[in-house]
Specification:
Blueprint lengths: L1 H4 L9 H22 L8 H25 L5 H13 L2 H16 L6 H8 L7 H11 L5 H14 L2 H13 L6 H8 L4 H31 L4 H16 L5 H21 L4 H13 L3 H9 L8 H14 L2 H10 L1 H4 L7 H16 L1
Helix pairs in contact: 2-3, 2-4, 2-5, 3-4, 4-5, 8-10, 9-11, 10-11, 11-12, 12-13, 13-14, 14-15, 15-16, 16-17, 17-19
Length: 358
């Protein structure tokens, strides 16, 4: 994809020809200027000077396509033609100065094509390198912890470290990585901002491509529940990625909700579909429907997150007696002896205490 957008080979500079033409233009414009100012007592000198200036500009304009046909660069020659038209003898002088600076800085400056390709190199990653990146990005254990590390790097890291993080996030994007990308979009370094914007566009493009593919699959076989579920989950993930504006996010969530409803109607006994459907309902503040959807899964649920979502829906509905009973119903997951994250231990412990007191 990148190769199709960027040229494979830069045009030849043709520096010697350019310098010769620029010097000739400089001399011609100097003579034309003197003639126009009446330094030389020639009848009709002013008109002759203007005609000479316009004629030289036309010749420079005709010179550009001739260079292009021969595969030579036309950037500096184009600048020469424009500056000569508007600045007279100062135009060739200024353009020669630009050419000198270009020659100096091009010795060590990275070209745009090389810089752009370096943002997201399309290379085959060795298994050891892939494993290393998985560990660094936190996918082996918890990508949320990795997201915090990425955010720290984006806040206080060097431009090179920030660019490395953005490249890694773009390859292994998770919604938890969105804050790091947003920090990149507002970074003081323009190269970091450009790379973050490119990464954001890349992530959104991949989401949209997958969306279109699944949408076509559903349209071709509307009775296929598996494809419908994949589309609904993809839209749910897309809305949850944090890269969309509020209106777009609401639109995508509504499409995901409609998709889940259709899937539940087609496969009412599929617990995984009801699990994802209930989670989305809770995110959309449809709390009562979320509680009704998740309640039938409580007895068989092995995923603590489902019980936490159900507990949240009970709390938001004010059904505190049911919330206390939930801890007693599933003590192996929500009981006082269950292994819980620190963020949940205190809350669940409180309701366990209330359940025992009751």
């Amino acid at each position: 994809m990148t190769d199709a957008l960027l040229p494979n080979e830069a045009p030849r500079l043709g520096s010697a020809e350019f310098v010769a033409v620029a010097l000739l233009a400089q001399g011609a414009e100097a003579g034309v200027t003197l003639l126009t100012l009446g330094v030389w007592p020639v009848p009709g000198a002013a008109y002759g000077g203007i005609a000479g200036h316009l004629g030289l500009t036309v010749l420079l304009a005709l010179w550009l396509p001739w260079r292009r046909r021969r595969g030579l660069d036309v950037r500096l020659p184009g600048l020469l033609a424009v500056t000569t038209l508007f600045l007279g003898p100062m135009g060739p002088a200024a353009t020669l100065g630009c050419a000198l600076l270009f020659a100096v800085f091009s010795r060590y400056a990275m070209g745009f094509q090389d810089w752009y390709l370096s943002l997201f190199p399309e290379s085959q990653i060795e298994p050891a390198q892939e494993l290393y990146e998985l560990i660094v990005s936190g996918r082996e254990q918890a990508h949320l912890a990795a997201a915090e590390s990425f955010t720290d790097v984006m806040a206080v890291g060097t431009p090179q470290q920030k660019q490395a993080v953005i490249a890694l996030v773009a390859r292994h994007f998770r919604p938890a990585f969105t804050p790091a990308l947003k920090l990149g979009l507002s970074d003081a370094d323009p190269s970091v901002r450009v790379q973050a914007a490119t990464a954001t566009a890349r992530v959104e493009h991949e989401f949209n491509e997958r969306w279109q593919s699944l949408d076509k699959a559903v349209a071709s076989n509307p009775q296929d529940v598996t494809t419908r579920v994949a589309l609904a989950r993809h839209l749910d993930d897309y809305a949850f990625c944090g890269l969309l504006d509020a209106n777009r996010e609401a639109e995508v969530r509504q499409k995901a909700l409609d998709g889940y409803r259709a899937c539940v109607a087609m496969a009412p006994d599929d617990d995984e579909i009801r699990h994802d459907f209930g989670r989305l309902l809770l995110r959309l503040d449809l709390v009562e429907e979320a509680a009704d959807t998740l309640e039938s899964l409580v007895a068989s649920a092995s995923d603590r997150r489902l019980l936490v979502w159900y507990a949240e829906s009970l709390f938001r509905l004010g059904r505190f007696a049911d919330l206390r009973a939930l801890c007693a119903r599933r003590p192996e997951i929500l009981g006082p002896d269950a292994e819980l994250p620190d963020t949940l231990r205190g809350v669940i412990g409180l309701w366990n205490g209330l359940a025992e007191a009751a």
